[in-house]
Amino acid sequence: MDAVTSTSTSTSRTTSDRDVLIRTLVGWHIAFWLTAGLAEIFVLTSRSLEPQQRWQATALLVTLAVAYLPTLLRAGGRYRTRWAWGYLVVAVLVVGAACAVNPYLSMLLFIVYPQTWLFTPTLRWGVFANVALTLSAV
After folding, report:
1. What is the pLDDT of residues 61-112, one digit of tens each?
2. Assuming Cys at both sites, which of 53, 78, 82, 83 could form a disulfide with 70, CB separation 3.0 to 4.6 Å?
3. Measured CA distances, 101 to 22, 50, 61 (Å)
4. For residues 122 and 9, is the Cβ–Cβ distance under 8 A?
5. How much is the pTM?
């Protein structure tokens, strides 16, 4: 019984959890750019978007990409930085606005939800970021 620990009461991540995130970081970066690229292809090719919506969506995607760039510089490092928190704030706002422009842009949630876990240091902050993201997309 001593060897079993409950992770539900822990508010911090274990070293092995963080190591897995670091080892798969390149894949997460690739997934971000692919998802953002697919969203932009949708924006450029969709007949359901008005020209104003197309410009709004493109501006939002560019904002998300620019906010993400500093996280690339931190690859392999700790994400308890202002850059990670800044990106998460921008991501929550951009995804919410993008979903308001066109519900199909909710495809961004597929990458931003996992990023909330990647860029937050504790379970509690990860939950907070996910709740904020969900509320922004509703």
Report:
1. 999 999 998 876 665 455 557 788 889 999 999 999 999 999 999 999 999 9
2. 83
3. 34, 10, 12
4. no
5. 0.80
Q: Is 76 left (phi over 0), alpha (psi -120 to 50) or beta?
A: left
Q: Write out the two tokens for 44.
A: 């450029």
DSSP string, 24-77: THHHHHHHHHHHHHHHHHHHHH-SSS-HHHHHHHHHHHHHHHHHHHHHHHTTTS
Look at residues 11, 114, 25 and name the one whose alpha carbon lies nearest to residue 77: 25
Q: Per the structure block, which two tokens stand in for 42?
A: 């949708």
CA distances from 98 to 26, 50, 120 (A): 25, 14, 23
B/e letters for 67-99, b = 16+ CB within 10 Å, e = fewer, are bbeebeeeeeeebeeebbbebbebbbbbbbbbb
Residue 75, token pair as written in the block: 């690859």
